[in-house]
Amino acid sequence: MDVRIIAATNRNLEGAVAEGQFREDLYYRLNVVPIYLPPLRERTEDIPPLVGHFLSRFNAENGKRVKLSSAAMDLIMGYSWPGNVRELENCVERMVVMAEREVISPEEVPLPYGHLTSLPSALPSPLPQEKAPPLTQTLEELERKRIEEALKRCGGVQARAARLLGITQRQIGYKIKKFGIELET
Prior knowledge:
Elements: H1 13-18, H2 24-30, H3 47-62, E1 67-68, H4 70-77, H5 84-98, E2 103-104, H6 135-153, H7 158-165, H8 169-179
Parallel strand pairs: 1-2
Helix pairs in contact: 3-5, 6-7, 7-8
């Protein structure tokens, strides 16, 4: 019989072995091919495809066609995910199950505000007394910035940037043209 065991932990086993808290022989049996997977907060580019996968799965299970607004996705991208992929999966499932409309808005994303790492503007806050810029201008600036960051991260490859953002190549091409984003050649 050919058996392979895959074990995962969030603990420092080398340190535990050194302190006598983990059996050394077991450590060496398990530590054949170590794989380090950084936490979700350190690989935010994985969030949109994971959200897409979970949305598809939970929509099928619940007979729904729920989607996320771009502002809701921005909020999800700015969360630190201390519970990693399992927490993200539970969050998406909760949104699909509880959704009353087809498009989820940021207010419907069940996240505690204490773990937001960025995008504080996505949080509800009182508007300043001075005249605020129109909402469409603010959203367009945020969208342009996200597209530019994705293109930079993907070396200017539109197809990869589109996948990273969870949109189609056609959509990113349209937005590049709309915002006049200059591509590096």
